[in-house]
Amino acid sequence: xxxxxxxxxxxxxxxxxxxxxxxxxxxxxxxxxxxxxxxxxxxxxxxxxxxxxxxxxxxxxxxxxxxxxxxxxxxxxxxxxxxxxxxxxxxxxxxxxxxxxxxxxxxxxxxxxxxxxxxxxxxxxxxxxxxxxxxxxxxxxxxxxxxxxxxxxxxxxxxxxxxxxxxxxxxxxxxxxxxxxxxxxxxxxxxxxxxxxxxxxxxxxxxxxxxxxxxxxxxxxxxxxxxxxxxxxxxxxxxxxxxxxxxxxxxxxxxxxxxxxxxxxxxxxxxxxxxxxxxxxxxxxxxxxxxxxxxxxxxxxxxxxxx
Length: 307
Hints:
By secondary structure, this protein is mostly beta strands. It has a single domain (5-304), classed as Neuraminidase (6 Propeller). It has helices at residues 72-78, 134-144, 179-187; strands spanning 5-9, 27-33, 36-41, 46-51, 59-62, 82-88, 98-103, 112-117, 129-132, 149-155, 158-163, 173-178, 198-201, 206-207, 210-219, 225-233, 242-251, 257-262, 268-277, 280-288, 297-304. The two termini are 18 Å apart.
């Protein structure tokens, strides 16, 4: 069992609305760039930026225009449901990397993405580009079925998306395509383009008869993918359910599942960042509190790399 160490709550210097608490609650994706932690939440229109060290409150960067309702059900219906945050290299021949946020695709309103360029310090530079990926999601839906994209990872010249299942649709899968093909999707989103993809299903087991399903992923320097999975008691990609627990796993470069271990707290892990040091993998993780009144938490953990 993996032990989580609580680092801090994801508090904000200012909330998005006078009637909203000044914190991120539904954290859904995490990327570290130098001293910065970037966090998306699936019920916000903004990106959160936090310092890894210290307890200074985070700042918000607007990604999508407009305002979301405060009431839970109305907000859920209108939110872009950003579940993916990943770092992509040299997009459009840029010397700098860019942060890519993507919607889950579980509803038509959840198909937008945002692309934010980073400067040499790792800070966001300029306004984000908003990209409608409806055509690409339509293609994925034909191949996968009902979508719930929860994570992404870049491994050299390959791009991986992670499909999250549920109690009714148990398909947990990686969706692999070339990075060049994915860049073409981002550059020409209005075109109907069907890249070559490879779909690999994974059986992640159960917690109390509830299947563990992908919630995020990141890449190690050796090309392996580290992921989070949670057992959420729901049979629908739209409806939430009670979290029964979470686990952390590793998929090696051959695509084999080589590690899957539960964590010691009953929290829903939704974002992961990893760094391989000797034979250990040091992790940063964020949670979805499933309650707007409670802040998401930042945790650290360590796992021994198998083999």
